[in-house]
C-alpha cells in the first residue's frame, strides 16, 4: 500500500504569500525524496530533491525540509505566483535497493489573485 | 535538449482494441519507467525497463499489459483488448542510472476507451 501521504489535499494561497505543502511518509528506510509539480494536462516536472543526510535544501523560491524524526517532508514556495498553481507530489525512494519511488496522492495548490 | 518524449499525446480506442504507447527517454538515459495516473490521483508504478530487459513489472496487471524497451527505438507499453477501466494518463519517465536516481517525466499519453 501507499506509504506516502499528504495532510492537505487542497491549498489556496494569496498571490505573493508563501506556500507550505506537507507530506508524511511511513518508511523510515527511505533515503531520497523528490517534489514534483504537475500542471493540468502535463507530466510531472522535477522541482527539488533531498537526500536523508540533509534536513534542508534550497532552490529558486523553493525550499524542501526533511524531518526524519517524525518522517515529514515539506515544500515551501516563497512569494507564490499564479504560475505555481498545480498539483504537487512528493515521492520517496526506500533505501532498500531495487525499490521503486512511491508517490503521494498530491496536493492541489491554487493561487488567488 | 530534448526531454522525455511520448506519443501519441491522446489516444482513443474502442473496447477490445489494442493500444500502443511509445516513450523515448532523455538522451543518455537507459532506464525507463511507466506509470499510470487516474484523474485526481497520484502516479502508480507499472514497470521498470532497461534496454532489452524488464527489471521490475510488479505494478503491471498480469493480463493484457506488456512492455518492452528494444535495443533500438522507443519503449512501448502495449495494452491488448482494452476495457473502459484502462482509461487513464500513462506517463513515462527516464533516469540516467537506476531507480535510486531522479526520474524525469514525459508529457504523458491520455488513453480514452469508449
Would you give an account of this structure?
The complex is a heterodimer of chains A (113) and B (114). Helices cover 0% and strands 55% of the residues of chain A. Chain A is mostly beta strands and 113 residues long. In chain A, a hairpin with a 7-residue loop joins strand 9 (86-94) and strand 10 (102-103). The mean pLDDT of chain A is 88. With 114 residues, chain B is mostly beta strands. Chain B contains no helices and 11 strands. Chains A and B meet through strand 4, strand 5, strand 9 and strand 10 of A and strand 5 and strand 10 of B.
Q: Which chain pair shows the most residues in contact?
A: A-B, 24 and 24 residues
What letter string, H or E per element, gives the SSE order of chain A? EEEEEEEEEEE
Catalogue the unreliable spans of chain A: none
Amount of beta strand of chain B: over 45%
Low-pLDDT residue spans of chain B: none
The dominant shape of chain A is: globular
Question: Cα distance, first to last residue of chain A?
Answer: 38 Å
**What distance lies between the first and last C-alpha atoms of chain B, to the nearest angstrom?**
36 Å
